[in-house]
Structures are given as C-alpha cells and as structure tokens.
Amino acid sequence: xxxxxxLFLVFFLSQTIVFAKYSENVKLPNITFVMAKDKDFxxxxxxxxxxxxxxxxxxxxxxxRQFWNKVxxxxxxxxxxxxTDRDEKIIIEYLFxxxxx
Length: 101
Prior knowledge:
By secondary structure, the chain is an all-alpha fold. The chain has one domain: Cytochrome c-like domain (Cytochrome Bc1 Complex, Chain D, domain 2, Orthogonal Bundle), CATH 1.10.760. Helix content is 55%, strand content 0%. It has helices at residues 2-18, 41-47, 55-58, 65-77, 85-99. Helix 4 (65-77) runs antiparallel to helix 5 (85-99). The termini are far apart.
C-alpha cells in the first residue's frame, strides 16, 4: 500500500509541475563577455565558444601558462573538444598573453 501511495504522489506532483503556468513575461538577461581580439582570436571562436561562453574563460582570472595548458588539454582529452595540435598551441598562447599572470 505504501508503494501505491508513493507512486500516486510522484505522479500527482510531476503532473502539477509539468502543467504549471506562469502568466507574467520573463526577461532573461543578456550578458556579453568582451574578449581581447587579435590574430589568434579566431582559434578561440573555432574551438571554445561551441560549448561555453567566454565568461567561463574570463571568470578564471589571470592564470599561469601551465594552468591554461592544463585547461586546454582537459577540454581536448576529457571533454573531446576537436582541438588540433596547431590550435592547441595558439589557444594556450592567446590565453596566457591576454589572461595570464
């Protein structure tokens, strides 16, 4: 009997959430993250912005070359970003040049 009651509660609550309506207009914020533009910026566009905003990069703060190297390698090896060896070097150099310490 307890299982039946739990199933009913799960079903009832899920239906309530699915069919809930919100009658007011909602305006979502539009945040633009300004990145340094130079000849290597296109490598960033080709590889990084597909998965996350530039805010992810800017929120890291000023970091070492080793830090940026680890991040780029992680994006390629762990998250399977299709970063070529050439672009990997360009991206690391770009990140360190503009957002390195």
